[in-house]
Design brief:
Layout: E1 6-7, E2 10-11, H1 15-42, H2 52-64, H3 71-91, H4 108-122, H5 129-139, H6 144-158
Antiparallel strand pairs: 1-2
Helix pairs in contact: 1-4, 2-3, 5-6
C-alpha cells in the first residue's frame, strides 16, 4: 500500500529533489572524472625524462630478473632511490611515498590512480596481483578494508 506524506498539509512529490540530487552527483562525478582523465594521459611522464629515464634504463632490467618483494628486489629499489626513484615519487602523487603521511594524505583520485598503477604493474610481473597486494599492503600500511575493496575491484572488473 502506497502512502502519501503530507508536508505543510500538501502532498509531497520527491521528483524535484531527486532530480536536483542527480544533477549534483553529475557535477561531483564530472570533476573527479576530469581529473582522472587528465591523469591517465600524463601518468608516469616523468619516467621518459631526465633523471628518471636514465635510472629506469639501468635498473629495470635488474628488477625484471628479481622476484617482487624479495630482499634482492628491495636492494635494487634502494639503489634506484638515489638515481631516479626519489624524483619519481616527488613528482607523482599517486605514490604513497610522495606524501609525508603516505596513503593517508591521498585524495580519492590519488587512490584510484594508485590502484590502477599497481594493477597494471602486476600485468607485467611474475607476481600475481593478489600477492603483490599483500606486499604493498604491508609496505604502505593499507587498511584491511582497502585491501578488500581493491580485491573486489579486481574481481568485478578483471575477473581474477
Amino acid at each position: 500500500m502506497w502512502r502519501i506524506y503530507l508536508v505543510n498539509n500538501l502532498s509531497y512529490d520527491s521528483t524535484r529533489d531527486t532530480k536536483e540530487h542527480k544533477d549534483n552527483i553529475k557535477k561531483v562525478m564530472n570533476l573527479i572524472i576530469a581529473d582522472l582523465s587528465t591523469r591517465k594521459e600524463i601518468h608516469d611522464n616523468s619516467k621518459l625524462e631526465y633523471p628518471e629515464k636514465q635510472g629506469y634504463d639501468e635498473f629495470i632490467p635488474k628488477l625484471k630478473e628479481t622476484p617482487y618483494g624479495t630482499a634482492e628486489y628491495n636492494k635494487v629499489r634502494q639503489d634506484m632511490m638515489d638515481h631516479c626513484l626519489r624524483h619519481h615519487y616527488d613528482v607523482n602523487r599517486h605514490h604513497p611515498e610522495h606524501f609525508q603521511g603516505g596513503i593517508r594524505d591521498f585524495t580519492i583520485v590519488d587512490l584510484v590512480e594508485y590502484f590502477c598503477d599497481t594493477y597494471a604493474a602486476s600485468l607485467k610481473s611474475d607476481t600475481p596481483y593478489s600477492e603483490g597486494l599483500k606486499i604493498n599492503a604491508k609496505k604502505h600500511n593499507l587498511p584491511d578494508v582497502l585491501v578488500e575493496i581493491f580485491t573486489n575491484t579486481v574481481e568485478e572488473y578483471f575477473g581474477k
